[in-house]
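Student: I would love a firmer grasp of how sequence relates to backbone shape in proteins. Thank you; the sequence and its tokens follow:
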Amino acid sequence: MNRILACIDASTYATSVVDLAAWAATRLGADVELLHVVQRKDAVASRNDHSGAIGLGVKSELLEELTRIEEAAGRLAIEEGRILLDAGGARLKEQGITVASMHLHGGIVETIVEREADAELVTIGKRGASGEFATDHIGSKVERVVRASDKSVLIASREAKAPGAVVIAFDNSPAACRAVRHVATSPLFGGLPVHLVMAGPDDSKHRDQLDAAAATLPACSEPVLRDGKVEAVIGDHMAAHPGAMLVMGAYGHSPLRTLIVGSTTTTMIRTVRAPVLLVR
């Protein structure tokens, strides 16, 4: 049976992650593994070890108090995770999805990479709880997951709904061509209108590349070729088509550069107010 790994935390993106996982699971005939990770903490770092500035006699009492606080915080994190998993699991079951919940301790990135081994798709929020209000930023943990993952990653926007269309960012790179093949063959996108969008001069070279890719997409509407920066061309098209999902190759070449190291993909993840699927 196919499996989707849905990673949640206490951020407001958790609902979108669960709902997109349910949408994908329904289309792929997959189960969902709902994952919450209680992060490991370095004991000294978490206490900031301010005790050295405290006078003799108070020092040991302070350390004992900090230990009690840390233990209480650990119990709270575990209970918070349990509540999140129960709520997410109930939301998935209401939609007829088979779900298994995993509540683990460890590093977030390492745990996700370990659990994704048998998954077809990883779903994660654009920002975690610690970056909740960092507008137009991609969370540091999310960035690291995307870089480390071997699977396609679906990044949820804050208010994600079932996509009504697919927009493929195309530059004729191997990664972009892989994204086109994925959209053409995966049941995830069956019946959805497809927009193929390319940034570049409207000349015969770019038009031939775009038309050749569009020919492999039966549901493709008129392909779009517009001169300008990739960020602007794709961003404008997404803004003009609310409810669409953006699909990009996880690795590309100029002008869609290597994920995270290159600015274009990072910019699209940060600024597009829609789910973004990065195809491996």
Summary: Residues 59-94 form the longest helix (36 residues). The radius of gyration is 21 Å. The first strand starts at residue 3 and ends at 7.
